[in-house]
Amino acid sequence: MNRAQVTGFMTGMAFVLIFCALCFKRKNKNSEYDERQKLARGKAFQWAFYTLVVYTLGIAIMQEYVKSIIFTDAIGSMIGVFLAMTVFAIVCIIKDAYVAISQRPKKVMFSLLSVAAINIGVFLSNWDNKLVCSNKKINICVLNLIAVISLLLIFLILLCKLLYDRRNSEMEE
Amino acid sequence: MKNLKLKSARAAKDLSQQELAQKVGVSRQTISAIEKGDYNPTIKLCIALCKVLDKTLDELFWEE
């Protein structure tokens, strides 16, 4: 192992540790879901899993018959992950299991918009530097755009669901 | 089947769905789903609801 590899490994480990610490901290504070939400999230996970399976199958068939695919295998796989994640989030939102009990929906929505804004910034900077496309193939930079689309879609559906819930709760009371 | 007993017990205690949800540690939507009959709660949640509403399991969940 050379020095760069060791540095890379150490940086990766540091990120994993920080991420785990944050997850553990949040688990105790505000990521509690009630029993109905946990069931709904399980169903949503199932939907996401099948989406990924169907997408992977679709990509495999496409690679067999379509010769000029405009993205690389890595990007194709990542698009599938984003797609599955979006399906998971949408099913959770529909079943009222996206926002934890003690979480504030506005905070979640602000987080979604913030991450979308960062991604769109990165994408536009890559677009300016002409890094998005090379040799008639889309580069990995396009994942920022896909993340933006996915986050904005989740944001919009969450917003609609919250507005619908607000109207519904007034009627139910 | 709608759980009107739960709804009336909650109304008798002058609690909103949100307030009851907070007291038993679930989301408002879960209380709404139980009242609408869309979700069957676990015995643990049923007992928590009974304790908050001062009712027995039979009074809240037994179908006659």
List the helices and strands and how they pair.
The complex is a heterodimer of chains A (173) and B (64).
Chain A: H1 3-29, H2 35-65, H3 73-94, H4 105-128, E1 133-134, E2 137-138, H5 142-172
Antiparallel strand pairs in A: 1-2
Chain B: H1 4-12, H2 17-24, H3 28-36, H4 43-53, H5 57-61
Helix pairs in contact in B: 2-3
What features would you highlight for this structure?
heterodimer, A: 173 residues, mainly alpha, two-stranded antiparallel sheet, 5 helices, B: 64 residues, globular
Gyration radius of chain A, in Å: 19 Å
Oligomer: heterodimer
Tell me the major beta sheet of chain A: 2 strands, antiparallel
User: How helix-rich are the residues of chain A, as a percent range?
Assistant: over 70%
Category from helices, strands and their pairing of chain A: mainly alpha
Q: In total, how many beta strands of chain B? A: 0
Distance between the termini of chain A: 65 Å
Q: In percent terms, what proportion of residues of chain B is strand?
A: under 5%
Task: Name the overall outline of chain A.
Answer: globular
Query: Structural class given helices, strands, pairing of chain B?
Result: mainly alpha
Computed over alpha carbons, the radius of gyration of chain B is: 10 Å
Low-confidence stretches of chain A: none
Shape verdict of chain B: globular
Mean pLDDT of chain B, rounded to whole units? 91
- Strand element count of chain A: 2
Number of helices of chain A: 5
Task: Please trace the helix and strand order of chain B, writing H or E for each element.
Answer: HHHHH
Account of the protein in words:
The complex is a heterodimer of chains A (173) and B (64). Chain A is mainly α and 173 residues long. Chain A is 78% helix and 2% strand. In chain A, strands 1-2 form a two-stranded antiparallel sheet. Chain B has 64 residues and is mainly alpha-helical. Chain B is globular.
